[in-house]
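writing this on my phone so excuse typos. first protein, seq and then structure
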Amino acid sequence: TETAKMEAALKTVVNPQVVQQVETFSASRSVKEIQNAAIGGFYSDKPESALLLGMKAVQKNPSDVLGWNNLAAIMNMSGLEHQAIPILQRCLADLPDNSMLLNNMGQAYMGLGDLVKAKQFINKCLTIDALHPEANHSMALLHIYHNNYEKAVQYLQKEMEVAHRRSSLAQLVKSGHRNKI
């Protein structure tokens, strides 16, 4: 499979000790434990481990859309958006109205600089889940990019109904809309 090829390629550039740790860990763990370790690895600033663990999880359970989504999200956050897009396209073929997948596809295109496609996917995500925090945050950033601060503030407010992020609070203050917090 493509994932096995990506894993093999990644193993050639990752520290062999990290590869061994991933192999040992994933051999005796459930898919859910491997997925959790992948996410934890990314947030612990270990993107290579996170990617390898994410690949192990989807190889153990290829029908798990959440595992594929998590792998794609880690790819997005690791600068591998071009690798995430085909994964998300495959998942969206089966679940076209999944807000989580739509958001991650929007994030991938945003990371690649295709703001038109990013906005399309993020808009569709927000149509399904108006309070999706990441999608609202990204839509605010898109409006800031186009100097439409009033619209950006609306999306930041939506984001804040669910999640509080310092960078979003800072954007509201910077835009002169501190009173809307």
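second protein below, same order as before
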Amino acid sequence: MIIRKAEKKDMEELLKLYARARAFMKETGNPNQWKDSYPQPEVIEKGIQEGKAYVALAEGLEESGEEGSVQKGEILGTFYFAIEEDPSYQRIEGGSWLNAQPYGVIHRVASSGRGKGFSAACFAWAAQQCLKAGCGNLRIDTHEDNRVMQHVLEKNGFSYCGRIYLADGSPRLAYQKVLG
């Protein structure tokens, strides 16, 4: 997979990816994390404008996923990544972060369901960006009903650290991966 910054021209495809992700979450027992409208178009646009929204593209025809073969250049997924402090991560309950060192954050991960290994590629790419910047940690959070993402995170070396709360007070399970 090739990962690049999302561009304004990708907006229609990103909206489809997030709609698919919301439907998938509902089908797998997680109807409340993104409900029917998150992320809103303006949230996605802001990520693009700030250079923090990314897409993963298929490198060739040989990749295949749940829904058959994919075309070279097809968008297989999207995510938000930045090396920044997340205000929601300041307070953690029922555990603690693995360390207090700088970290990269990953948010709004959504896959097309086509092409294998999107999440692993996303996490590996983010880890490389962190290490290049001298940052040795990745953090991410998910809803307690998002069992699929919890499994994916644990499979990719993330450790459960405790519970954090979003700005609106919604609880999330917090994960961290120490790199290096």
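The chain has a mean pLDDT of 93. thats all i got for now
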